Amino acid sequence: MHAPHENDRDVRALDGNAIGGLFLEIFGTEMTTAFTTCATCGSTSTVAEAVVYLQAPGAVMRCRTCGAILAVVVRRHATNCVDLLGLAALEPVPG
Amino acid sequence: MAGTAVRGRLTWQVATVGSVTDETTSVRTIELEVPAWAGHRAGQHLDVRLTAEDGYTAERSYSIASAPGEPVMITVERLEDGEVSPYLTEELRAGDEIEIRGPIGGYFVWDGADPSPVLLVAGGSGVVPFRSMLRHRERIDASAPVRLLYSARSPGDVIYRAELDKQPAGVEVIYTLTREQPPGWTGHRGRINAALLGEVAWPAGEHPACYVCGPTPFVETVADTLVSLGYPALQIRTERYGGAGGT
To answer: What's the pTM?
Structure first.
């Protein structure tokens, strides 16, 4: 085992569109347009614009401004463990 | 012990493969019959889940290639070391069943109601959601003028070439071929850069809606370049995909 090259890591960085299905399952509503507030730097954005890694042990969502972890979802069998501690706010668009 | 709280709202459903169409030597469009499909918006995607005999599952997201109101289609590029795409592009046959979840997404969508000009920038198979948008534009006879700038490696890698070459008035398709151009090629060559975007993109003052889809490095470069050309970041919607698809 060796650490991936930096380029490999970059290629694996996706965006919040990629977590839309998982979030739809967890929250029961469309979430890529949901507004986010980073608990670390305070910047506001949307889920779609966050940096998302799916190859980590679970799905990891990071702030595009400061890089802090916003959310982690780890799935085992039929259970999703959802950690949203990096988010000061997560607000789906009504309707 | 399947979860019950979310089961009624959104879960996986079985889709039956209707037909498969080869687009290039490594790209295939798959039509799906989905009995409980809720209808989709142009630009949305769906998730595909494959389950092995031992219970191992692999999930991937694919943009929807058809317009709202048409049968659901996805277009899949085969990645040589892929876990899912080789099966979808080589093994899958009409009548086979796969599990899907969707439609998904409300950010990277275009409904056609806004008459503002639209700039679509595609890298490789990033063109897939744009076929949905272009078909939707034609079906609803939308007035928004559209320019699609499409970067592909070679002529043989251009997906939907025949369809893109006969777009209705108001749609312009501009190709750039990055690695190999056919004899007599008069189109653009090389990767998308500030000079090409400056030539092709609508003036920022016309408040165009921009959509950029492709591999992550492609999207980052194009979005940054558009910002440097004076496009407000909020007008640029991006969708990145993984894998090693070429642009």
So the answer is: 0.92
